[in-house]
Amino acid sequence: MSTARRDAVNAVVLSLGGALWSLRFALGPDRVLGNWRHPDVLSNHWLLEWVAERLATGQSLLHNDAYYWPVGDAPLLAGNGMEGFPYAPFAWALDWPMSVTAFAVALLTFNGLAAYGLARAAGAAAAGGWLAAMAVAAHPYPATELSMGHFPQADLGWMMLSLAALLRFDDTGRTGWGLAAGLAGGVCALLYWYHGVFLGIAAVVLTLGRPLRWPGVLAGLAGAAAVAGPWLAVSLTHIEAVPGFQEATFPAVEATEATLLLDWPVGALGPWQQGRVWPLAVALLAPLGIRRGGWRWAALAALAFGLGLGGALYEAAYGWAALLRRFWWPYRHGALWLIAGAVLAARGVSVLPARRWAGLLLGLTLPWMLTRTGDARPVRASPATLPPAAAEALAALPDGLVIEPPLSPRSSSSQVPLIEQRFHHKPLLTGHAPWVERVRPRAWDEAMAANPFLAGLQRWERGGAGDIPIEGLDALRTEGAVYLVVNPGLFAQALAAQPDGYHILGEALGREVARERGVVIYALDRAPPPTVALPPVRWPGGLKPAGPRHPLNGLGFPDATFDQVLGAPR
User: Fold this and answer.
1) What is the pLDDT of residues 448-505, one digit of tens each?
2) Fewest C-beta in 10 Å: which of 143, 282, 399, 568?
3) pLDDT > 90? residue 57
4) Residue-wise pLDDT tens digits, 437-461
């Protein structure tokens, strides 16, 4: 085996090893990747599956009618859904949730291999590239994003591939490398536009003052426009469907909460701080990598960290344009910080004696270093009883609309109904993150308010009158039957009157057709009385209603599908 091939094999082994180490708690057919209690996890699993299904069937990707009946929404625009495209082959080959786990393994491995390629393009020896591969594949930043269901945010590979091609173009002047940088950059921006912005920042810092070779530059711009331009045009045409662009406040609340802290990058504990972690080997070797032209990478690291702190620099960089003001999460500049650190450390390996053995040893022991410094953040996983028994029972029933309360956004806290919908395939009255005002369709709020039956139930959940008018129930029968699913796991224990009341409603308006693991399904097919009296709902003084950004933060009843979370740090 040639040296070059052996170097590449080592990079693959280390990248895959780092990915499997990060995902060790998620490997198994009964594990759902991520912390299911996080409001983004199950909804983003749903989104990946939805995109793959739409691609397989040739249906429109611009509108979803599976939830928020009768208006639907635009999840691809609202939810960073383009990651569903690379995910689709995994969905077609494997059943959920193993498809998501396999995709995550591939994603983190790809991150590591791209880091290896970038380090080599930045002048590091192969041994330094091995360290970079492990440093990125096993890094706690993408692992933490995956734990929260943020698949596009964990996908750093295309950004690094574009930068690697850009450096090759800068060295050789070959137009092909310029085109490759643009094509990879277009994919990077298409999958997650924040990363497209980061790529632009990095490209400017790494090439500032260098001569422009216009044929390659124009080829790169054309390649990026060809890949990302069509979807950018669609997004701008439907800008009203993208949450946050209509907001005038800058910086947003998230921009003041989710920032990096100015601190030593080893042992970086606390919310939002995983991006500023440099593994111990990276922190020690990065200063050595500044030699022989590495100052640009040091400048990029410093700029990324400064932007991640929020404040004046962040506001100056993003406050001048409406599109940029939509950037809510300063801490995500940690992606550039960790990439720059990995490249600097890879360059630093080149000055070590016996560098091949040193690079391999440092790469292999990097997970141990993360563990010893308290920076290890394996991807969390949620053991699950699959398929959900109640959803399977619902799938066997005739077509119809599924009402799965709570119905009031102020009472909502769970995305479990979305995952159940992937099994029963019936339209849901509620939808994705109803407690988030900027996400919930305004037309759905209007439809609920216009239906006396549904509006009465929403008011009752919030502590209003318990005499529910039945007027409006017939309007729900356009989908066929109407099913009421009472799942105790969706309710706060302090609001136990809510599930009790829905059982009364189901018995008054219909009949029980299934009961699985504590979840009861009613078919609302009886001739109804004019009103149904439900017990009053009294909100405890210390229980804050959900919204406008956060779900109801009350202790819930045990869930029929999910229970504990594995991999959570102490």
Assistant:
1) 999 999 999 999 999 988 899 999 999 998 888 999 999 999 999 999 999 999 999 9
2) 399
3) yes
4) 888 999 999 999 999 999 999 999 9
31: its two tokens:
């594990």
Cα separation of 29 and 117, whole Å? Answer: 33
CB 327 within 8 A of CB 245: no
H or E element at residue 403: strand 400-403
Taking the C-alpha atoms of residue 15 and residue 17, their distance in angstroms, rounded to an integer, is: 5
Tokens of 367: 């997970």
For residue 287, is the peptide bond before it cis, meaning its omega torsion is within 30 degrees of 0?
Answer: no
What does DSSP assign to residue 494?
G
* Residue 379 DSSP label: P
481 within 8 A of 401, measured Cβ to Cβ: yes
Nearest to 198 by CA among 343, 317, 78, 79: 317
> How remote is the C-alpha of 157 from its chain's centroid?
16
Question: What are residue 428's DSSP bridge partners?
Answer: 402
> Which residues does 260 contact at the CB level (< 8 Å), separation at least 6?
272, 273, 275, 276, 305, 308, 309, 310, 330, 331, 333, 334, 337
**CB 94: neighbour CB atoms within 10 A?**
15
> The tokens 């979840």 sit on which residue?
519
The rounded distance, in Å, linking the Cα atoms of 548 and 325 is 19
pTM across the whole model: 0.95
- Which 3 state secondary structure label does DSSP give 43? helix
From CA 299, how far away is CA 302, in angstroms rounded? 5
Structural element, H or E, at residue 512: strand 511-516
Could you tell me the two tokens for 211? 């001569």
